[in-house]
Design brief:
This protein is an alpha+beta fold and 82 residues long. The protein contains four helices and three strands; from the N terminus they run ββααβαα. Helices cover 46% and strands 28% of the residues.
Length: 82
């Protein structure tokens, strides 16, 4: 199972979109521990949304969409309703 997720920084409100084969909560914990440079500078995060997929390619496609122009509008809407 693959998950596409949206995190929001509690520090500055910035969002992070990613995909993982791990549980979304587990991945959130990794980001809050500073698993990469960008998230370590913007932590702590809250998980505001996630979707599950059986196929890795579908998850990657959805992640890319959410990072595109139209997808960013959807991410913004999700953040506003969090």
């Amino acid at each position: 199972m693959y998950h596409v997720y949206i995190l929001v920084s509690e520090r500055n409100g910035k969002s992070y979109v990613g995909y993982t084969s791990k549980n979304a909560e587990e991945r959130l914990n990794e980001h809050n521990l500073g698993s990469n440079k960008w998230t370590s500078l913007n932590k702590p995060f809250s998980l505001v949304y996630y979707e599950s997929y059986v196929c890795k390619e579908d998850a990657i496609r959805r992640e890319k969409f959410l990072k595109s122009g139209v997808g960013k509008k959807l991410v913004k809407l999700i953040k506003e309703n969090y």
